[in-house]
């Protein structure tokens, strides 16, 4: 086991770049003289896709931050699983751009394809988080002193929920209507944001108590 | 409360990328053989917009740097507010590109739209700074030992001033003339740069005195 | 000899950006209404090239991480060799994009050129790693306490193997068939990933023993 | 005076991004089936411009690294001067792209313009380094213990030499022939690389002696 400092620095770099690259898809519209305002309004869907993906990457960073606080170091296997997580993070701008493109130029079929792609990508991205929590559960030496077995098991449930619900969201978006899939994705991102907070609040409470006793 | 190291690293990454991405809008002009010089001169407005936004992001980094020096750690809420601040930083290249585009290809109406967009974005970006200072004021445990309640309250006034004055700048740019809005934006950036310095000088003085006593 | 902290931070930044920039080549296809799905499927080769290069850069990072753990500091010469290594890392997106382009739009001749370029670049990239290990071998003061002369000598063999085998892969891809070259590149990346792990496992074993005794 | 850690991290981020962004100008040529090789060879000047700028940014990083090792902390003024230095670093991809463009598509007039722009930018970039060394000389408290007044004064001469010689290079490239300017730029970059090393060797020697006594 070696220090996780460089792992954190490398991961922070990737998160920072991904969250910033999203802005590159906010293109200045081509416009005829005097019609810049219309052009900007026509790009509305891009702005929506940008905002959703920014919050998504931000939530993933909060979760990643919370995980690394709970481990004491890294191993080659842990670093490799982390790379798989980053793979999922790095590709987010792509389904985002596809979604923005479908919202702007596509018909309902295209929107369905784009929503399913987004949900499918989000579903697959949950898998390495599951592997990570399972790995930490089976290697107790990696865990920081304040974290117990039970907390890791609870965490392990979250990516499984993500895998299933994002997948279901994609299926709904495909079979029923893209809008439903879009709403599902937004709900899931909020869920991940909220539970990451919940977990941490739990930990604080424990720490505070440990402090008092 | 946990260590703010990764928060700083992630934020530094975002600032570094944004300030560097600005250069991507300095495109090499297409030119006919022998007319590169004319082409470059025609891109003048892009260079102006680039320089203003570089200084803007630089000033924001100096301010962010000053804030993180004054706190002892982070909480999930603090991290989330920080993400909202970074959201504002990340989008700067977009109104910058719109402004450059309007300066190069637009008429007065387009320029008005671009200036108002820039001022509006800058005004909204002030809001999470306000929330941040209010949060630090209400959670004294977060403050570093050298910082007192009064200093935070003074800081809280700055983003409110920004919110109002950037907004006013947008209104002036809309009602009177875009040029006035443009000047207003530049004045505001200088104001933020100067007061960030002022604050820190104040703190040094305190520290030096604390050192002597 | 000075602390290698900034060297690691700078290198991590470069690795993080390169691995993230790869996604920029996953372009949203232009599509006629209702044909987004077909457009996405047509971009298949790009996705393959992206995945291979992501794993490649990830493996290089794991190797770089393993090297810096084994040294105690840096010298200007060490920093310069590191820059040469980063040069190799930074250019990876280029042969990747050429490969994706040849897979999508080229005939067998173009694919041959692209595979040879990829293998040639990978072969050349091995050279500064060789120089690095030779430098560390000749400057024992740089080595961390846990690393002995023998371990460095073993490491030195790996980039030489890479230089020769990537080169051979390029020759095979040229003389026989591009597909063979493509397979060779993938095999080599897996080899580098596996041996980086192997080396580190060896080190753990030593440390664990050292711990016990 | 506050810790220079975040200043270093932010600067490293900017250097890492700039050095990596250079690769974005290595575009895959558009090609007819079977003509990829010809297309790639036609991009030769881009590769040259890329290599020169990579080495340039690398040398600047080595110099920046050497400066921050010699100071104990930062002040708002020092941070602001550092931002001016980074401004110079960030714009390097632009004259690089102009140069590549002129080499590929321009005539002698265009090349002259591009070389003068490159030399002019390099000349201006030297100015904030001069200001930085002068600032450190006048604020001895900032200096690390191992650095004396004389060493800083010697350093101060280097950016002045750069300012004058890069400027002269531009003038020669304009009046005589662009090729001379191009050679001058390459020579200057090598000079900066070599002297950055020389300075540090000097310091090591001092430290080693200090160690012995």
Automatic annotation (TrEMBL), chains A, B, C, D:
Keyword rRNA-binding: no
GO cellular component labels: membrane
Membership in a protein family: Belongs to the TMEM175 family.
Pfam families the record matches: TMEM175 (PF06736)
Membrane-spanning segments: 7-24, 44-62, 83-103, 115-136, 157-176
GO molecular function: potassium channel activity; proton channel activity
Keywords: Ion channel, Ion transport, Membrane, Potassium, Potassium channel, Potassium transport, Transmembrane, Transmembrane helix, Transport
Catalytic activity: K(+)(in) = K(+)(out)
PANTHER family: ENDOSOMAL/LYSOSOMAL POTASSIUM CHANNEL TMEM175, ENDOSOMAL_LYSOSOMAL PROTON CHANNEL TMEM175
Intracellular or extracellular location(s): Membrane
Origin: domain of life: Bacteria
Protein name: DUF1211 domain-containing protein
Keyword Transmembrane helix: yes
InterPro entries in UniProt: TMEM175-like
Bilayer topology: Multi-pass membrane protein
